[in-house]
Structure prediction request, 251 residues.
Amino acid sequence: MKAGLRQSMAWLHTWSGLLLGWLLLAMFVTGTSAYFREEISLWMAPELHHSQPSPDTPALAWAALNAKAPDAKSWDIQLPEARSPVVQLRWQPDAPQAEGGGRRRGEQAVMDAGTGELLAPRASRGGDFLYRFHFELYGVPRIWARWLICVATMFMLVAIVSGVITHKKIFKDFFTFRPGKGQRSWLDSHNATAVLALPFHFMITYSGLLIFMVMLMPWGMNAAYEDGWRGFFQDVFPREEAAAEGGAAAP
Prediction:
């Protein structure tokens, strides 16, 4: 490492970018594609293309859930929209909690919005694969993948901050471009595009770390709550079950 603040920041900027830049590129590409995950998923399931919403769609969805899961703990109906012509039905079976205290996954089905028929599209994760790859990778255990993603994101934040410190003439560099100078031209391009996108890059990097703040920095919640972060979320987002008199389910 070189002596001096700017020389040290230049070294840190270079190596923090090189070590995990390949992973960050994959995260950027899949994350950008995930903005169109609904369209990608629909394109990969042609069985859903003929669905046409009608005024009777909500009633059909209600009837389908009454027939499919009348005793479910909860229902969720996602009606058709511009990006998806079908009805998404989800329900939580009224069953004991999963062994080990983990969250029990609910059931789901896809319904034709015009006829009420339950559809069986081909097995494909579609755009959800790109969305999940963006922050969980593929073929890696989920917890390790998320930690790797967070480490890469931290490296990017370090690269951003150290890059700003390195370029003491950052705004002058933004307006400097010397074509036909080989590596110098590439460096000028790097500086110009980096300064232009700097607010965006900083925002998505910092906000990405905030999304995983419970995993990265749980110590405050663990110290303040007996049940740790679970107790915190129970306090902030309480889940209370209401029942009518006589033990009957409330409306």
Observations:
- The chain has a mean pLDDT of 83.
- Strands lie at 74-78, 87-92, 107-111, 118-119.
- Residues 50-123 form one domain.
